[in-house]
Design brief:
Length: about 300
Amino acid sequence: MAEAYFVSKKDLLQWINSTLSLNLTKVEQTSSGAVACQLLDALQPGVVNMNKVDFNAATEYDAVNNYKVLQAAFTKMGINKPVDVNKLVKGRPLDNMEFMQWLKFYFEGRLGCQDLDYDPVGRRQQSKSGDVKGARTGPTSTVAVARSSATASQSGTPAKSVASARVSSSVPKENVPANTGASARGAGALRPKAVAGDSTVADLTEQLIDLKLKVSTAEQEREFYFTKLRDIEVMCQMPEVKQERLVPFIERVLYAEDDEGAAQAMEDCCQNFSEASAQSAATDNAITNLVGQMSPLRM
């Protein structure tokens, strides 16, 4: 099961987009649960109630309803997979990537070598809110827009500020107070700095997310190989295996403190088995010669 979590973000997005005819650019765009619902619908048509799936979920409440539909499908299919909805709907990249990695592993395991005969666009059109709306495909983008709008309204920013700025630009200069020009110049000087600062923050955030994904993948790989080594250690301690000539050399490699110690253990192993092979060959030759010498005596 650990190999399921070695799928990269790029491979995940390519698999989702090709399977469902979408154009997702981020794994967190699957956070509403609609993509997971349709993947199960593609795998086993009829198990998901697509009429209740909302591909344009604008709030976490809508996303939670999608996960209820997904959980109902899990129950029908006998899937015993805990889903942490509270984490997934927050749109955190790591949480959504791990869930999609597991879903890809399950999907491909169930599908096997069968061809997928499925109309993803047609099925989305039968969903609660129809196909994904807007230029940016993926439900998370809709949720993000809704959240940003709510943040703007809570901050008290007037909705008509942009329109007011456009109207003021058409007013003749002689009708504008003298200090207005200075204020405009000041605002113009500050605006590029603000844009540059936002761009820097966005870049750093993206780098931080990538680093977290790499760290998470490295930790999973470390755990995977540590488990394998522990299994080998336990096997070497079994009474029926411990007496084998190879076991001491395996243990020396496992417990070596550096590469030099491990290399020496492997060299000793090769030499030991080479000598044993030579002794065995000598013994066979001696037996053959003895048999040859005894044959005339019998006659």
